[in-house]
What does this fold into?
Amino acid sequence: MSEIRIRFATPEDAGLLLEFVRELAAYEKMPDAVMASEDDLRRHGFGPERRFEAIIALVGDQPAGFALFFPDFSTWRGRPGLYLEDIFVREWARRLGVGRRLMARLAAIAVERDWPALRFMVLDWNPARGFYHRLGAERRNEWLPYGATGEALRRLAAEDAGQDAADA
It folds into this structure.
């Protein structure tokens, strides 16, 4: 079996990262949901105001998977943590230890940076949930994900714009 190596992504990896994102979207049954471009990833991951970092797993010299993450912040702890936005391993590389190596590297990054937590979300149907449990990750049943996007986000933002006019 070939060696698994993990390295940080570089600006030259923007195209590869986009390939991984598209493959992940297809795996999650939403192949048409990806709106990101290589330029978006290059600008936000490697520009002057970095919004994310990514690591890439290689089996031999073949890109096998990736993880994209950024710091979040715990007001209770008063410290940042590592938020894993996406992790994906190509089908041919599954069961070779690639996912475990990516997760271990993320944990090491958190420890190296003195970030006390590694957090992420998993779709309820994703068979990788068992893998995360075996790694020691726990499901947090008491927390429910919420978010506002699209029209709901614009409607809520419009309330603030209306308030600004009233305050003037």
Q: What stands out?
A: The mean pLDDT is 92.
